[in-house]
Amino acid sequence: MKGTLHTTRWKWLLFITAAVVFVLILFYSNRLIGNIAKEERKRIEIWAGAISYKAQFVNETDHFFNSIKVDVGNNARIVAGAIKKVTQASLDEDLTFYQDIITSNTSIPIIVADRRGNIDAAVNLPDTVLRMRNVKELGNHRSEFDSLRLAYYGRDYVTVYYQEMPAVVDLHVVIDTLINAFFQETVINSATVPVIITDSTQSTVLNAGNIDSAVLQNPVALQKRLEDMKDQIPPIELDLVDKGRCYVFYEESSVLKRLRYFPFIQFGFIAIFVIIAYLLFSTSRRSEQNRVWVGMSKETAHQLGTPISSLMAWTELLKEMPIDQSVPTEISKDVHRLETIAQRFSKIGSAPVLEPTDLVVVIDEFSQYLQSRISSMVSITFNKPENESIVLPLNRYLFEWVIENICKNAVDAMDGKGSINIDITEEKNRVFVDIADTGKGIPTKLQKRIFSPGYTSKNRGWGLGLTLARRIINEYHKGKLFVKSSVINQGTVMRIQLHK
Prior knowledge:
- The protein is an alpha+beta fold.
- It has eleven helices and 15 strands.
- A five-stranded mixed β-sheet has the order 10-12-13-15-14. Strands 2-1-4-3 form a four-stranded antiparallel β-sheet, with helices on one face. A four-stranded antiparallel β-sheet has the order 6-5-8-7, with helices on both faces.
- The mean pLDDT is about 80.
């Protein structure tokens, strides 16, 4: 029992050590992951702040562009008004001021055409346009001009076509480049951070990075992903040119998410390693114990062989002497019993031979033999089944050893006073042998430990009886031996399950 308790303490010590190691790993890993998460959030905040400033810069540039566009339109109106004044003036009127306005326009492209589209004047345009006679010749390029209609004489009128200054056109290209660069940089700078940029409805995706395309193409999956991202981190609100109010959704990087599971994965590997090491140690230890038991059993059988042979010879001599013949008869029974025990020991460690045997006969004969050799205050009752013959593959010598171990343990549990009842029940392919005693009972927490090598509740004993009994039933006969039930101070029922 001390050896078993010692082993149990080592098991608990190993378990507690593994638990402490796991807690330390989890604590350190969570602390490390928390620091990494903080650093990542700082980088995201810096990145988000840069996005906000860039968006503000784009918006200010757009406002500047719009103001220039308005100024160009106003200047075009002034030039067009000067042209109208010149065309309506009398011969003696001084038109120097208006002519200066018209000639000072060196940047705004202007075309003046009559109601039929015939070009009367054109400035600040390529030579190809200056050689044109009608605005129809502009073709698709006509859509590039804004126009003003100026009343002429009566119902007649002229149309002034004008364009933005080249510098403004170039500025517009720069604005578009800034917007595209903004989106691209937003995605690129996000590194491994998943990012989705939406419009004001939070349903239309303007751009995305590190997001599965299948999610972006599925509206339901997209909305779920946006909600999940929103629950983790509030989105950034931005006002962009030609886009209006936009939202930038982002979440933790995939690396950080995987790191959160790393302690459990690490502990899993450690646990697997510990379990494998423990199993290898237990298997090695059990194998070593088996070798010791086998060697001890075979040596015991060998040592018993010589005195048993001598006793058999002396018994035959006693039968020929003029004495009470009951004496040599009983001695013969005990010698036969010793021979049976020697055979049991000799079969330990080797594959036993299972032969068709009548289980009822074996238990009946052995219970009668055992009854005569235990305390008279203990009764053994074998309740024979209705079917008085149950034949199944058995090794009789080893099976009797199992019955003997169980019954002797029952006698010890009853302190030499009580009753033992043996019952047999059958199912289709199984047979159950129940051995019930009226002893002290076995606590629930010890009902599995009693089969462990070295466990015993006696002051003397090796604690191998039930271990060998279970091995004989489980390994040799492919059955089961277990505690069916036990009640403290009322008794225990041991069950043997065999296959037909």
